[in-house]
Write a structure and sequence with these properties.
Serine Threonine Protein Phosphatase 5, Tetratricopeptide repeat; 4 domains; two-stranded antiparallel ribbon
C-alpha cells in the first residue's frame, strides 16, 4: 500500500539515492543511469515466490507490535494519562498534553507537538495491513496456479501462512477501528490500477465498518486454521518461547475478536449495545493463559515504551483518581472533597495485596520475600514485580518523589514491567492478560443477566489479591462485601452522586471493572482508555477517538480536522 504521503517520501528518497549513485559511478559504467537502487525495497521480489511470501508473513505481527510499542511517541503513551492509568506533566510524547485538566481536543494541525505519535500507529497498521493483503493474495494465486497443490510443501503450511496473514490484517484493522474515527479497509481482493501498478487507494471508512472488516478477517483466519488444519505457528512469529498449536492460535484469535467487539463503543450506550452474547462466546473459548511477548533487543521485538515508563517518577506515577478506590481508611474521600489544585498525596491503606502493605511509607517500602505471591523487592530496587508475585505497585523511596499536578502526585508507581528496563530491554511483556479475557466474559455474563456465571471469574482474581469473595447469589447491583469486620473494608470504594466526594462499596459490576483495571494496569495496549471510554468513566472533555492524521489527509488532498467526540461527565463525576 502506498498512501500518498508515504509514497511521496519514498519517491524522493529513491531519487536522492539514484542521483548520488550517478555521481559515484559515472566514471565506470557505459550508461551512468543504469544503476540499481539498493535503498528501495523490492516489493516484487518479496512476493515473487511462496517461500519469500511466507517469510514476509512471519514478520507481520512483529511489525504491528513494534508499531504500537516500539517507540515512546505513540498512541499508547498518550492513552495512559488520558485514562488515569498513570500521570505525568512532561511534554514528551503527548503525556502532559493529553493528561492536562481541563482536557483539550486533539490537535491535528500540521506540525502539532504530538504529530509523530498520532501518526505512528495509523501508519504502521495501515502499511502492514496492505502487506498482509498482498501476501494472502499472492499465496492464493500461487495455489490457484499450482492446481491447488500445496506451494509450501504441505496443506498445513499453506493454511498457516494464509491464516496468519488474515490474523495480521484483522489485528491491524481492529486496532485502527479502536483508536481512529476512520481508516481505509483493505482486502486481498483489492484491485490494482493497471496504469500505475499500485493498488487503487481505498476510501476512508468509519470505524464501525473498519471493525466489521476486522472481525471478518479474524473469522477467515479461524476458518482457514481449522479447515487446513494449519501447522503450528513457529515461536518467533509471535515472540513465544515455544511453537503455538493451531488450537491455541484459534483461542488467541477468538480473544481478540472479543476484545475488539467490546472495545469499539465510544460511549457507555454504544458499549452496552455491543453483541455481548458473541463477546462472551469468544472469550469463553479464548486464551487460558497470559499471551506474553518475549521482548528482545536481538530478535527485534521492542520494549521501548515499557523501558521509558520505568525511567523515573516524572515519566509515570500513579494518580488516586481510579486507584484511590482501593483505600479503606477514608483518605480517598478526603482527597475527593478538595479542589483539584489543593489535593495532596496520601498513604494508601487497603486489603488489596496488589499494593504494598503497611501503616507507614517505610513499612510499605520494605522488602518482602515470602510468600512469593506477595513478594516485593522494596527499597530503591528497580527490578520490578518479581516472577510469581502480584504486587504490581510500589511505594517509592521519598527521594524519588517528583511533584506534578496536585491531583497527579502520589507515592506509588506501577513496577509490573520494570524488569524489561532492568535487563537492558529484554524480558516478558503481557500483551493480552488472561484476566482481561476473563473479564470480557464476566462483563458479557453480567450484561446478559447471568451474574452467577460472572462471579466465579471475578472472584478468581479478588480472592487471590486478599479481597472478600462476592457471594454466589449476588446480582449485578449488589455491593461487594467487606474484607473483614471493619465497616469500610470493601474494595473498590466508588465515588457517589450527587457530589461524588464520598464513597461507598462498589457493585458487582464495579468489582468486575476493578479486577480488569488492576490486572491490565501498564500491560497490554491502551486497555484502560478503551474500557474507560466504553464504561463512561473518562474525565469530562477527554477525546474519545483520534482523527485521521493530517499526514494521511494531506496525501489524499483533504483538509485536516479534529474529532468533536468528547466525554461528558463520567460515572464517577470526574
Amino acid at each position: 500500500m502506498r498512501f500518498g504521503m508515504r509514497q511521496t517520501t519514498i519517491v524522493r528518497l529513491c531519487f536522492g539515492a539514484t542521483a548520488m549513485s550517478v555521481v559515484l559511478l559515472a566514471g565506470c559504467r557505459d550508461n551512468p543511469l543504469d544503476v540499481k537502487n539498493t535503498q528501495q525495497p523490492s516489493v516484487g521480489g518479496v512476493f515473487s515466490s511462496p517461500l519469500t511470501v511466507e517469510t514476509a508473513v512471519s514478520k507481520l505481527f512483529e511489525q504491528l507490535y513494534n508499531g504500537q510499542l516500539g517507540a515512546s511517541d505513540d498512541i499508547m503513551t498518550q492513552t495512559i494519562t488520558m485514562s488515569f492509568e498513570s500521570a505525568s506533566q512532561l511534554g514528551n510524547f503527548g503525556m502532559g498534553t493529553r493528561g492536562a485538566i481541563p482536557r483539550a481536543p486533539i490537535d491535528n494541525s500540521i506540525g502539532n507537538n504530538v504529530a509523530a505519535g498520532n501518526f505512528r500507529d495509523f501508519d504502521f497498521h495501515s502499511r502492514n495491513a496492505r502487506l498482509a493483503t498482498t501476501a494472502v493474495g499472492a499465496l492464493d494465486n500461487f495455489i490457484k496456479n499450482n492446481n491447488n497443490v500445496p506451494v509450501l510443501g504441505t496443506v498445513g503450511r499453506d493454511a498457516r501462512a494464509r491464516a496468519f496473514g488474515y490474523f495480521a490484517l484483522g489485528y491491524a484493522m481492529g486496532n485502527l477501528a479502536l483508536i481512529y474515527d476512520s481508516a481505509a479497509i483493505m482486502t486481498p481482493q483489492d484491485q490494482v490500477d493497471p496504469a500505475t501498478g499500485n493498488f487503487v487507494i481505498p476510501s476512508l471508512s468509519l470505524s464501525t465498518a473498519v471493525m466489521d472488516a476486522a472481525l471478518k478477517d479474524l473469522d477467515s483466519a479461524i476458518a482457514i486454521t481449522n479447515a487446513g488444519p494449519a501447522s503450528t505457528i513457529p515461536a518467533d512469529w509471535l515472540a513465544q518461547t515455544s511453537d503455538v498449536t493451531a488450537a491455541n492460535f484459534v483461542r488467541l484469535l477468538r480473544s481478540y475478536k472479543a476484545k475488539f467487539r467490546a472495545g469499539l463503543g465510544r460511549t457507555a450506550t454504544a458499549r452496552a449495545a455491543a453483541d455481548w452474547a458473541a463477546i462472551t462466546a469468544d472469550a469463553t473459548n479464548g486464551i487460558t493463559t497470559d499471551f506474553i511477548v518475549q521482548v528482545n533487543t536481538v530478535t527485534g521485538w521492542s520494549g521501548s515504551v515499557q523501558t521509558q515508563m520505568a525511567t523515573s517518577t516524572t515519566w509515570s506515577q500513579m494518580t488516586p483518581f481510579i486507584l484511590g478506590m482501593a483505600d479503606t481508611a477514608g483518605a480517598y474521600d478526603t482527597w475527593l472533597q478538595l479542589a483539584l489544585t489543593a489535593r495532596a498525596p496520601f498513604l494508601l491503606r487497603t486489603p488489596d495485596k496488589r499494593f504494598p502493605s503497611g501503616e507507614t511509607r517505610a513499612a510499605q517500602q520494605a522488602t518482602v520475600a515470602t510468600p512469593v505471591l506477595f513478594s516485593n523487592p522494596g527499597g530503591t530496587n528497580r527490578g520490578g514485580t518479581p516472577a510469581g508475585s502480584i504486587v504490581y505497585f510500589r511505594n517509592r523511596p521519598g527521594g524519588e518523589d517528583s511533584p506534578a499536578d496536585p491531583w497527579g502526585t502520589w507515592f506509588y508507581d506501577n513496577q509490573r514491567s520494570w524488569a524489561i528496563r532492568a535487563t537492558g530491554g529484554n524480558g516478558p511483556y503481557v500483551l493480552f492478560a488472561v484476566a482481561e479475557n476473563d473479564m470480557l466474559a464476566a462483563e458479557g455474563y453480567l450484561r446478559t443477566g447471568n451474574a452467577a456465571a460472572a462471579i466465579p471469574l471475578i472472584n478468581k482474581y479478588r480472592t487471590r489479591a486478599g479481597l472478600a469473595a462476592i457471594p454466589a447469589t449476588a446480582i449485578i447491583t449488589d455491593q461487594v462485601p467487606n474484607s473483614s469486620a471493619l465497616a469500610k473494608d470493601c474494595v473498590p470504594r466508588v465515588p457517589q452522586p450527587p457530589a461524588y466526594n464520598t464513597t461507598a462499596c462498589g457493585t458487582v459490576f464495579e468489582a468486575m471493572k476493578w479486577e480488569k483495571r488492576l490486572e491490565t494496569s501498564m500491560v497490554g495496549y491502551a486497555q484502560w482508555f478503551v474500557d474507560a471510554r466504553g464504561w463512561g468513566d473518562l474525565t469530562t472533555g477527554t477525546p474519545l477517538e483520534w482523527p485521521v492524521p493530517y499526514q494521511e489527509l494531506f496525501a489524499r488532498g483533504k483538509a485536516s480536522y479534529t474529532t468533536s467526540a468528547r466525554a461528558t461527565v463520567g460515572s464517577y463525576g470526574f
